[in-house]
Amino acid sequence: MAQIGSFTRGENGIYTGEIRTLTLRVKASIRPCERDNEKSPDHRVSASGVEFGAAWTKAARETGAEYLSLKLDDPSFPAPIYATLSQGDDGEHKLIWSR
């Protein structure tokens, strides 16, 4: 697992930060959205006005700590990227890539 981004959460619940991979370096936002049903995402991920991902609120089994489970997709990716956004010790939220 590798950190591919860092975000801060504003008072309005919007996360802002940067996502960095070998092929992508963008300033992005993760905004809460209205859900159509129980499978709909809780958040939408966008950069420069283009939506390229979604996020669902989850809770850790052992601690109950909330985190976001993200699915990011971009034409430069060979396949979608799955990642988690969780709060670090310093208040910064770290975007961690996983397979």
Short description:
This is DUF736 domain-containing protein. By secondary structure, the protein is an all-beta fold. It has strands spanning 2-9, 15-20, 25-32, 43-47, 50-59, 66-72, 81-87, 93-98.
Question: What strand line-up does the widest sheet have?
Answer: 1-2-3-4-5-6-7-8
Number of domains: 1
Return the string of H and E elements. Answer: EEEEEEEE
Distance between the termini: 8 Å
* Total count of helical runs of at least 4 residues: 0
How big is the Rg? 13 Å
Structural class designation: mainly beta
- What oligomeric assembly is this protein in? single chain
Q: Report the helical percentage.
A: under 10%
Low-confidence stretches: none
> Strand count, sense and closure of the main sheet?
8 strands, antiparallel, barrel
Identify the overall geometry: globular
Structure in words:
There is one protein chain. The protein is an all-beta fold and 99 residues long. It has one domain. It contains no helices and eight strands. An eight-stranded antiparallel beta barrel has the order 1-2-3-4-5-6-7-8. The radius of gyration is 13 Å and the shape is globular.
